[in-house]
Structure formats: C-alpha cells, structure tokens
Amino acid sequence: MWLTQLLERNRQCFPERTALVDEERSVTWAEFHDRTAELARGLAESGIEHGDRVAVLSKDRIEVLESYFALARLGALFVPLNHSLTVPEVAGIVERVGAVAVIGESELLDRHTTLPASVRIRLALDKPGFEALGTVAAERELPAVADTDPIAVLHTSATTGQAKGVTVDSGSFRAIALGWLVMARPTDDIVMVNCCPLYHGSMVVSLTYLAAGATVVLTPGFTPQRALAAVEEHSATHMWLVPQMLRFMLQAKSSHRTDLSSLREILYGAAPMPLDVYAEAVERLGCGFRQVYGMTEVGGPFVTLGPDEHPLPGDVTARIPCGRVVPGMSARAVDGAGRELPRGEIGEMVVRGPGLMQGYWNDPAATEEIRLDGWVRTGDLGFMDEEGRIHLVDRSKDLIIRAGQNVYPSEIERALMAHPAVRDAAVVGMPDADYGEVPLAYVVLESGTEAGAPELLRHTSTLLAPYKRPRRIEFIEQVPRNPAGKIIKKLLRA
C-alpha cells in the first residue's frame, strides 16, 4: 500500500532526516514511520475498522498527516474537512459519507457539538489522549490493505455548487507521485514550505514530495509574514502556494528584509498566475517557477511546466501555458461530441490514466456525468499546442455565449487587470434580452487609486473586440475566492 511503502522506504533510506515540521515540533522519518504504525493500532483499538470513514477537522499540523497515514494503514478512509466551513456544512459532509469518527483540534471540535448519529468517536488531536493512542495496542495486528481499496474521500472546491466527495485509492496517489517526480527530478535536500491547506486535493503535492524524501514545513494558515518567516527559518528550497498568496508575500513590508536566498523553486497552481505578479517575483526572488495544474478527480497534479520552460516575463502575451502531462496520464481537447480536436483548437480538456478517482462518494449519477468513454471531463476549456503543452482558456461553466459568439471571462479579467488601478477582477455572464448573455465585470481597485467605469471601459476597448467588452462594471471591496485562490463565481452570480 503506497503510503505505508512510502514511510518504510524513507525510514530505511534516511531515518534521521526531518520529515515534517510545524510551529510546535518536528519529526524524523523514523519517528513519522513509528508513530503512524502505533497510531493505526490505537485507532483500531478505539473501534475504527477497515472501510470506515473518519473526518479530520484541523488546521495544518503534523498530527493531520500522521492521522492520514495511520488511517490509510488501517484501511479506513480519511475525509479532510475545510475548517472554515459552517456547522451545517460540516454536518452535511459527515452525514453524506457516514463518518464514524471525527478527529480534530479541540477548538474546532468544540464548535461542532452536534454531529450526525453515525459519529460515535470524537478525538482531539491536540489533547494527551490522542498521543496516548500510540501505547494502547502495541501488539494489535493490522488488516491487509490493497492498492485498490479506497483510502480517502477528498472534497472538491465547490466554486460552482455543492462540494462532491472524490473517492481515491492508493493506486491513484502512487501513479500521480511517480509521474510527477519523473518530471520534477527532485534532489534529496528539498525543504518545502506548504502554504496550501491539507483538506483538499492540493495536499497531493505535499504527499508527492514526501515520497521523494523531502522535508515538508506546515503552517496553521497562510499569512504573508508566516510564510516568509518559514522560508527564512528553515532555509526552504521550495514553496507550494497559489498566485494570490505570492502577490500578498511580495506586498508584505517584511519581504524586503527577509532572507529568501535559499529558494530554488516556487510551485504555484489553482488559478492563473497574474503576469504582473510573475514579473515582480522573477525580478525579486531570482528562483525558478513550476506551474501545477491538477484536479481532485484525476488524482491531483497531472500537468506541470518546469522552470526551464517558463517564459521570461516580457515574452508572455496572454497566459503562461500549464505544461505537459506527467508520464502515465493522458489529456486531450475534445469537442461537444467527445471527438479529439486538432492542435490549437479550443475544446474541453479530458484526462485518463491510473490516477483517476474511483468515483464520487455515493453519487453514481454525478460520476457518470463527468466520465466520457474512459476519460474524465475537467470542465476546463483549453487547447494543446504543437509541443504537447496544455493551454487553458476558461472554465466551461463560466463561458459566456453572446449572440452565438464565445466570450471567455478570463480574457476580460486579464484586460481589466492590465490597468494600473485594478487590483483584482472577476467576470460573469448576465442575462440580456437582445444578446442572450453579456459580460458583467466586478473590479477591485488598488488602494489609493481612482478609476471610474467609463475609464475602464475605454481601457478594455483598446484590448478587446466589441463583443468581448463588459456591458457593465461594478466596484467591490474583494473578489470572493476559496482557500485555493479560485474565484467563487456562484456568489457573484447570486
């Protein structure tokens, strides 16, 4: 079983090397391995069995990954929960997956006093009782776990509707990790600061670098100051973040006095990299950049563009390509009938390979809807260039059809953000009696700047064809984004 094999291999190869670090402590690979086995036995003794679902409600910390690995060793499914969800939202997920236990930080557990009847075990991972689980069943035999046994239910970002539970097995984690590491060619001295939460598919990036023996530094939540301090304190070589996080780090006053010279590579994903952020980061940080394109339903990160392939900031005219698929995975652009399109033509990207999910938890209809003759629909519109690189254009659900013409919101957003007064922008379609649908833009201005709608409309007229220009511009204080940096357009449409 992949996660168990990962621990066994790294304990054998470098037992005294640091595996995990958080703000409270660090553990070596030998300690991580032994603690996971002990915790698996303790959880089994507490009544958790092979096939049970266990929700994990916590900010990022070492105990979260210890719990994931221990539950996987037991053959129970870990179900990471977004700790910012409301009480009804958490209860809804717990009920849908039929979780028998909830493991979490005591502060968060105290907010969720009423949970569905299926929950019979509550464990606070920051209390002595959780640590003591490692001593209660030293001789207990653990069940055999096959690579095809499901070991996790990871929930989607839910930018367009209710989050779906993605069921994955060890084979998925292994396929993505091995394919990714072939492309990334990691060295054995990587120290990676993980700025992304461990409760959705982005955690697969951390698992992948752990498989290579890297040290992963966890923080309980992103702030620019915390991320910068972690890089300096641990001489980090890599960071994993979303572009908005990088923007905030560059804007932080402390960035100018923080030693970031150890950085060799910044991994970014979940949203397009703004070109102004990229240009400033290249100039100030002097490190390489690696784009990560992934999807929970296909196992996580399955496409990458490495540092050697990133264009110079001045050579980027629209958007940096996502990159090429990792070995073992395949992708192509298809038309509405599912036919593969020629290079350069825009269609929906579909993916297949051993990283694919088993399906959505208890939702065969949704599972069938996302599948296409053995492929999985990504919902992303894009094309493949002559070099085999994937270029994304927009989300298919966000496409605006104005009088029969396709309008891509991301293109309008880039045009708006090219104006020096615009800090952020989001575009959605709004009904129109004459054209069916037209673009509506929401804009956040830079602090201390002034720009009215007429000025921004004139600006877009120099960059966009008439049918692409926003019909109306609304000014807001903040574009709603989820923790992965993706725009929550359902809130704007509402």
TrEMBL record:
This is AMP-binding protein. Residues 411-486 form the AMP-binding enzyme C-terminal domain. PANTHER family: LONG-CHAIN-FATTY-ACID--COA LIGASE, NONRIBOSOMAL PEPTIDE SYNTHASE PES1 (EUROFUNG)-RELATED. Residues 8-361 form the AMP-dependent synthetase/ligase domain. SUPFAM superfamilies: Acetyl-CoA synthetase-like. InterPro entries: AMP-bd_C, AMP-bd_C_sf, AMP-dep_synth/lig_dom, ANL_N_sf, ATP-dep_AMP-bd_enzyme. GO terms for molecular function: acid-thiol ligase activity. The lineage of its organism: Bacteria, Bacillati, Actinomycetota, Actinomycetes, Kitasatosporales. It comes from the Bacteria. Pfam families: AMP-binding, AMP-binding_C. It comes from Streptomyces doudnae.
